[in-house]
Amino acid sequence: MACIVKKLFFCGARSFRSSGCQQDEEEGRHHRLPHGHIWVCVGRDTSRRFNVDANFLNHPLFEDLLRLSEDEFGHSYDGALRIACDADLFLHLVDLLSSGDPAAHYMELADLVANSHAGSL
């Protein structure tokens, strides 16, 4: 995981040619990222691509999701980080982190899952 994060910061997310998401292959399009953002593909069988603030990578809840995803996807990537969880749960996390709610700093992954509408990883 640290190797992926280093490449994102040193080379930039724009250095990736493809995100590897099924959604992108079906739509056949690639969008430019705003400065300081990365692509994250979320889902197990079919994935959706999200544009995420790179600062979120340092948050413990985001790191927990990345650790859980290592078991499923390993450390390999093809243009985007891959997270093996429900897209609704991921969006709930992004909304929580974007809101600046201080409760996010004290929340465990199990609490996030319990509080989300998805209710599962």
UniProtKB/TrEMBL annotation:
Output the GO biological process annotations, alphabetical, semicolon-separated.
response to auxin
Q: Which InterPro entries match?
A: SAUR_fam (IPR003676)
**Family in the record:** Belongs to the ARG7 family.
- What protein name applies here? Small auxin up regulated protein
Q: Which organism is it from?
A: Colocasia esculenta
